[in-house]
Amino acid sequence: MQKKKSKNYWPHGIIISLLLITGACIYTIIEAIKYPIELDTYYFDTKQNVDRNYDKIKAAQEAFDKEYTVFFEINGGSANLYAEGDNEIRIVINDKEGKCDFDADVKLLLTRPETNRYNQNLALSNVEKCRWFFPPFNVETIGRWQFQTKITIGEDVGFFTYEASTSREKNTTD
To answer: Could you tell me the pTM of the whole model?
Structure first.
């Protein structure tokens, strides 16, 4: 009687698994390189300066939060941006007593969280009654947007991010 030779597929499975894992690691590294952390704009500074001065930045933020409140007003109070047409943003800054008898340097960046391609630095146009006005702006792409703000009042510095999005439907403006 002749013995039937059985085939063992485990070595093939192990080799294929190792190749797939190696391919997934290479893909992850390639995708991670596309989004380097140096391009993070939250602190309006380079990664190296933020690393060196993080304790100072955090202390300044805590001092700012103890003294001031910040609110964002987008398109009359809505959190939505218009995909077509002019958008408006105002930043309201008050001290804890509700007064605004101070000078503030306000920097505002409109950005998308996943890319810097659509970044817009919005210049201050007017200050009136605790409100910092910025000129109207357009957004180029439907989706998620962020307003990143750096507010400097004397020695106190505050960093804020406000999330907004565009509607998928066409806006009707009267």
So the answer is: 0.72
